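Lab notebook, bench 4. The sequencing result for the construct came back, and we need a structural model before the next group meeting so we can plan mutations. Quick request posted to the team channel:

Model the 3D structure of this chain.
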Amino acid sequence: MPRTRIRLLTATAVAAATLCAVGAANATGSAPRSDREIPNLTDVVNEIKAYYGDTVDASGEHYASASSNYAKQVAGIEAKAGAYLREAVRHTRPGRKPAIVLDVDDTSLLTYNYELEVGFVYSPASNDAYIQNKNMAAVFGMPAVANWAADHGVTVFWITGRPETQRAATVRNLGAVGYTSSADPSHLYLNTKEPTAYLPCSAPTYTCTTTDYKSGTRKHIESLGYDIAADFGDQYSDLNGGYAGRTFKLPNPMYYLP
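Done. Here's the predicted structure in token form:
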């Protein structure tokens, strides 16, 4: 969730984005001329909560429901991914090692409780405090996808925009919710924003976009002898740029990272 370096849609912007998605906003992106062109913010938040099947436990923590429309949509994507992977693994190029790549936030781990806790208003400080002190739930079904891959000889990599200071907390959380693959430094890439030999955009001044960073890291992984059969992400910037056999976009109506 690299929102310290790229724009986050807060709840207000989510509302505007929702409006654009249904074609109600003007095509130029200019300021609304009337309040009728802007969806009600409370209604948008309630729709998001309904989509995730908002469930609140005794301590006030919010969780998505396994019977929600979100969970059903994710399951459909994972079913297609599973069928694809079963075939892709059989057709790995000779001399290459099969692999998959997963983003972390809202691909492997669900940020829904954090978003509700802060009212969809992200800040680096609140996000870091949450990650360091709490575990996010797994995205429904994704541990099974990753673990099936690992059990069938596929190496699992994670590429995230989280900073290096969140490595230990990320490893802890992934293990706590059922991911069995090793999330060691060779398989978990975090965005250090430091000069990196395989990222030309990182030096002498770091100018990498999300797509530059993620696709460049996938290119590096393939240079190590891997065939990346599939790349999973909740943002198109997780998936663009090539170096993956097939991409799988997971749903996320809460924010947008270009």
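The domain at 11-249 is CATH 3.40.50.1000 (Rossmann fold).
Will bring this to the meeting.
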